[in-house]
Design brief:
Elements (H helix, E strand, L loop, with lengths): L23 E2 L5 H7 L8 E3 L10 E5 L11 E5 L8 E5 L2 E4 L10 E5 L4 E4 L11 E2 L13 E9 L5 E9 L22 E2 L3 H18 L1
Parallel strand pairs: 1-6, 2-10, 9-12
Antiparallel strand pairs: 3-4, 5-11, 6-8, 7-8, 10-11
Organism: Coniochaeta pulveracea
Protein name: SET domain-containing protein
InterPro entries: SET_dom, SET_dom_sf
Length: about 220
């Protein structure tokens, strides 16, 4: 397993977690897994791997102090400048691993390549993207959905090689977007919010129901 690099971490980064500037590989990954994630796909948007290295100055980890926020006393990710519709906001870094080694309690695990059985988990190490919250219940978002999304990408190296990865993107402007909404997807100071998906919340409710049942 490649060890995390010792590198400068962003403000409000937890001292107990390694800050990553590139992905880490689980020793459980086989050569078949590695070949799959290192095989180029024209379907994926391509970006230079140099963008992986942080800290990333266009986002900021910020403690949540509003008691009405679902992540109260935790943290969220906020834009430090206006982010354009469709823009790559920040790479999502963590440990690449096969699903057989999935930590079922992790809230930071995303499929990287489901057909190849490879996921990326930022529970124990990662970068700023691990602080992206779900939009549900966030104050001030009545009638609004997320303003960002997770998307697979291709990180292209200088040597012509590369690998699949995950990143957080600003949602594209809708067909009905007018005025400022055409050029600004997430405004400076606004929280970057995604949808964790129905499956995530269904599992969370099942876990909470099981805990309550165990306390009866």
């Amino acid at each position: 397993m490649r060890k995390p690099e010792k590198s400068r971490s962003p403000s409000n980064w937890p001292s107990s977690l390694p800050y990553l500037r590139s992905p880490i590989y689980s020793p459980s990954l086989t050569q078949a897994h590695l070949t799959a994630i290192r095989t180029p796909s024209e379907a994926l948007p391509s970006f230079p791997s140099s963008l992986l290295a942080g800290p990333h100055t266009n986002v900021r980890i910020t403690p949540i102090t509003d008691p009405a926020h679902p992540a109260y006393k935790q943290a969220g990710l906020f834009a430090t400048r206006d982010l354009a519709p469709g823009e790559l906001a920040v790479p999502y870094l963590g440990e690449y691993h096969p699903s057989a080694t999935t930590d079922l309690t992790s809230d930071y695990d995303l499929w990287l390549d489901k057909s190849a059985d490879v996921a990326v988990d930022a529970a124990r190490m990662g970068n700023e993207a691990r602080f992206v919250n779900d939009y549900r219940g966030v104050p001030g978002r009545d009638g609004k959905r997320q303003n960002a999304e997770f998307k697979e990408v291709w990180w292209a190296g200088k040597d012509g090689k590369g690998e699949k990865g995950m990143a957080v993107f600003v949602l594209p402007a809708g067909k009905r977007a007018v005025g400022r909404a055409k050029t600004v997807g997430i405004a400076k100071g606004e929280e970057i919010l995604v949808s964790y998906g129905k499956g995530f919340w269904d599992q969370r409710r099942d876990e909470e129901a099981g805990m309550e049942a165990g306390q009866l």
